[in-house]
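Progress report, Aim 2. The chain analyzed during this reporting quarter is listed below.
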Amino acid sequence: MTLWSLPHPLVLASKSAIRASILTGAGLPVEVAPADIDERAVEAELTGEGATPANVADALAAAKVEEAAIAQIGRLVAGADQTLALGSERFTKPADREAGRRQLERLSGRVHVLSSGVALAMDGVALWTEVQEARLTMRTLSPAFIEAYLDAAGEGARLSVGGYQFEGVGAHLFEAVDGDFFTILGLPLLPLLAALRRAGAIAA
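Predicted structure tokens for the chain:
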């Protein structure tokens, strides 16, 4: 017996290895097909409308699954995106080590919010979206520790907003978190599983 009820695997519209790992760890068959969208253009459309970071995460997740689903006719597509906000300031993935250092210096000793959007689509149409948030309190980081962390994290520091991967050495940066673990990793798993059950894709 398998938990998955559909004849084809779930399509994941993301190149994130951790998101694919979360889904396969939950026993779901996954086929990776990253969406090719201009994330900055989607964000720019919302900026003038007073959109919150949660709105942006929701819009990006929906745009990804809709784009990927156009090429996957008849297939169920899942996608996710994440934003990081420090008050009214929003962060993106750091372009290089120096950008990562600057982000960590800004986040040091402060509380920031991660908004993770997740969506399902079929035939180019979003069927469902949801956003969950988590609040993370970063320790006060010394310049020496930031350099040591960046050495340890390597290229991984550039793969997520804020310059850290919480599931790895990024855990050393924090003193407290308030929120779901999967939301912090960028894929709110429990609401996604509930949506898949409602869609008849997995056993209820």
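The chain has one domain: 10-198. The chain has a mean pLDDT of 92. These observations will guide the mutagenesis work planned for the next reporting period.
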